[in-house]
TrEMBL record, chain A:
Keywords: Amino-acid transport, Cell membrane, Membrane, Transmembrane, Transmembrane helix, Transport. This is Branched-chain amino acid transport system permease protein. It comes from the Bacteria. Pfam families: BPD_transp_2 (PF02653). Its main location: membrane. InterPro entries: ABC_transp_permease (IPR001851), BCAA_transport_permease (IPR052157). It is a multi-pass membrane protein. The chain crosses the membrane at residues 6-30, 37-56, 68-87, 99-119, 139-163, 192-213, 225-251, 263-281. Belongs to the binding-protein-dependent transport system permease family. LivHM subfamily.
TrEMBL record, chain B:
Residues 323-361 are annotated as: Disordered. It comes from the Bacteria. Its main location: membrane. This is Branched-chain amino acid transport system permease protein. It comes from Streptomyces umbrinus.
Amino acid sequence: MPSASLVFQSIVLGVLLGGLYALLAAGLTLYFGVMRVVMIAHSAFLILAAYLAWYAHRETGVDPLLTLLVTVPLFFVAGVAMQRLLLTRLRPATLTMMSVLLTFSVALVIEGLLGYAFSGTQRRIRLGYSSASLEFFGARVAVVKLIAFGLAAAALLGLYLLMRHSRFGQALRATIQHREAAALVGIDTDRIAGYGFGLGLATAAVGGTALSLDTTIYPSLHWHWIGPLMAIIVVGGLGSVPGAAIAAMALGMTQSLLQLELSTTWAQTVFYVALFATLAVRPQGFFGGRLAQRF
Amino acid sequence: MLRLGALLAGIAVALSFPSMAPSPYELTVGIAILNFAVLSTSWNFVGGFTGYISLGHGAFAGLGAYATGLLVTKGELPSFVALFVAAALVAVLAIPVGYAALRVRGASFVIVSIALVLIMLLVFQSWASFTGGSRGLVVPRPFPGKLRSEHHEIFYFLFLGLLALALLAWWIIDRSRFGMGLKAIREDEDKAQSLGTPTYTYKLVVFVVSAAFTALAGGLYGLWFGDLDPVFQFSILSGAYMVLMALLGGVRHLYGPLLGAVVVGYGLEYSKLEYGDTPLHLVFAGLLLGVVVMFMPDGVIPAVTGLVARVLGTGETSIREVTAAELRDERDEREADVRPDHRPDGKRPDGKRDGKREVRQ
């Protein structure tokens, strides 16, 4: 039986990890909301952002966080372009299925190019504060993990405020709720959907930079992330942002606690167990709304 | 007549390939392509008939290979007995998997199929005491006395036989009532259900059949290659290649996956030879998949036959396969015909042309 302080430590780490999962799952939920698209390439873009942060740090020595100034707008534009140039050209009848394959192909291209440019070698950013940690009610927490969580929390909060309190957010939510009705009241739904997609990809830039702070990265790492993220959005109910956030927190915490007793690999199976359990019991997801029931 | 001739010519080429191949290397390329062809034809039982796209069929191939290998090494069964027992075991395992996965449609189904491969990868890597983990599992060769080239030749014909079996099974289902029900699911699942098709049972049965064939292909590969590693056996990439090959050739056609396998399999071998150390083959595969999805989601065969039909002007045949959209167009046309403003030239009053018709293979 692990000691109480160890359990507490795991809970703290679980919350920190869950925050990052929640941010990334929110991006996936946005894509699904605006386009009915399951974006397999999300985690590939995550790794791409991490590589850009690592590369900028290696070449110029700047703090990885500064790369956000470049990667966030860049990814936003890439998202809009992807929606406009690729996804809207698929046939509506088979959009969901074909978009999976299309984004999968994007993921393959990114992985291949990353491997070509930077080789398969594992990379890691060494920072002045990499090994620093804080004492927090008896739990030791690495500073970089706190920064990563802070980034994720700030991005999620920003996303929430944007969705709730801006005209764009209103238009985006209207587009997600009922595209035709939104178009009827004068919203340019195509443009809004494009921006929504860009917004989703921008969250991958933030997540990737957060990830680069304390993880070893390599080109095929995105497969490691895609499973848990997909599991989270199914458990949370496809298309539900709060559902994704709750599921992300719950599963991230469970994974962290299971690591006390099991190896890291076995602890990861919690996502897949949850995925299959959800499908067997409640296929529309545990927190899903109206949208999820159709898929 | 023409088709029978083409079929016989194809069989003749396939049978004589080992004696024509200039070196054992070309023979192994031939085996790899046949392996791909069996895999994508097996995938096409689900993908082609029902329209459910599984990216996780690599899991069944890997399970077939590992089950065969473990039955030979730990169970001490003869190689080919192990192969069929393994396929049966995978078929049994596919029942609960299909039960969970087929409860959801579209996007969720694809997610589940991806998850399946990732789980298997985790399990087979972690459970090293049983599966050998990342050190790999060596499967003893079924014909220890044979030379390497003889060994390749035997496996070439074994793969060819398996491919013939898979194609035959697909052909039979294609012409059966069961196949009709599956295609109804592909076109409009809710409507098929409301018309009394037991959609869930049909989906599950064809999923299990597909898994069993995939496992046979994987197991045969295990016996041929002799060395299994979880990273390659349970890779999403192998599932993606199956989808790519089937889509490229055309999922509604018997020979679609086979054609796709020849193109993709040869391309992969070539890029491995040319750019072996780089991950550029991923880029090629990704770009090819993107192009197929964007520009010819029905595959090469319909695109080419459509072109040929337009050139020769033989677009009409008596047996056609039509989509729901085409049926709707046709119905509109009939309704237009019974109205008094019916025109003798067969054109609709609104001047719209016929929907494009797909010629059945």
